[in-house]
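Recall the central idea of this unit: under ordinary conditions, the amino acid sequence of a chain determines the structure it adopts. In this exercise we apply that idea directly, starting from the sequence alone.
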Amino acid sequence: MSVHPEIVTKVREIIEQIAGRERTPRDVGPATPLGDGSWLDSVELVEVLVACEEAFGVVFDEANEIDSGGLETLGSLAHLVQTKLAKAERVP
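Accordingly, the structure predicted from this sequence is:
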């Protein structure tokens, strides 16, 4: 399943806001790793999750969703958000 571009864009905006433009890779896209240490640290990853929950009105289950690869890349996080929205029937 491809991820809706609006979701990818919003997740990217959230991440850029938390990381700051000076630390955001120039060519960031769905395949960009999130937790490689140069972009986001562990505290900032938690901030991203909280901001995504607030922005999209979803709740993440850390044990099942996040630990299974939901935070590997920008695209995997956007896919996780889209999956949560689809379950709630709120995909844009």
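The two ends are 14 Å apart (CA to CA).
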